[in-house]
Amino acid sequence: MARQAFPVVLSAPSGTGKTTLAHLLVDSMSNLQISVSYTTRPMRGHERNNEDYHFVDAAEFNAMIKRNAFLEWAVVHGHQYGSSEEWTQQKLDEHKDVLFDIDVQGGLQIKKRFPKAVLIFILPPSMEELESRLRGRGTDPDDTIAERLKDARQEIRIGLDQYDYVINNEKLDRALFDLTAIVRTHRLLGFDRDKIRMKLLGE
Questions:
Q1: How many CB atoms are located within 10 Å of the residue 168 CB?
Q2: pLDDT at position 75 over 60
Q3: Which pLDDT does position 41 carry in this prediction?
Q4: CA atoms within a 13 Å half-sphere pointing along the CA-CB vector of 150
Q5: pTM, entire model
Q6: Is the pLDDT of residue 2 over 90?
Q7: Are 60 and 69 in contact (CB under 8 A)?
Q8: Given 3.20.19.10, 3.40.30.10, 3.10.50.30, 3.40.50.300, which CATH number is that of 7-36+96-201?
């Protein structure tokens, strides 16, 4: 049965486990592909170019902005991030849903472009737990962590006010179950009932 593909947006404060959930969701569902963002930030740890992100310099990123190559883009924690317009449209045309692991600025841009996009915000169990996770990374100094926690409060406000769904990532398996249920429900809602009526009833 034919249905219209749609974007799925996951957003969350840094350190909430959004990227882990995004990859688990893609691994657990067919016809769902994750969008690899372009970014000007430096590569971290074991990250790989063109798999975790497309790492580019500011000049290349700005050139892409000028030629309207991005479906959405934003500045997050001092670095630029963007999602490919051409790649996204190609996947949607192939009837594949596209998963975006992006911030709330980008999520709201995608919702304007694709009103049927599903926006899902991932909450940390508590602000104390979020701070513990950020410190546990061992990658950021205290002032950076303080800035991320400040940003997190604003992101949570936007998620609660403007996102379609809110999920608490206190337990990873439960959060993944809820994510899967949301995507499956929206797939069922997306079937073209007129085509089904024609095929089954000839009407």
A1: 14
A2: yes
A3: 93
A4: 8
A5: 0.87
A6: no
A7: no
A8: 3.40.50.300
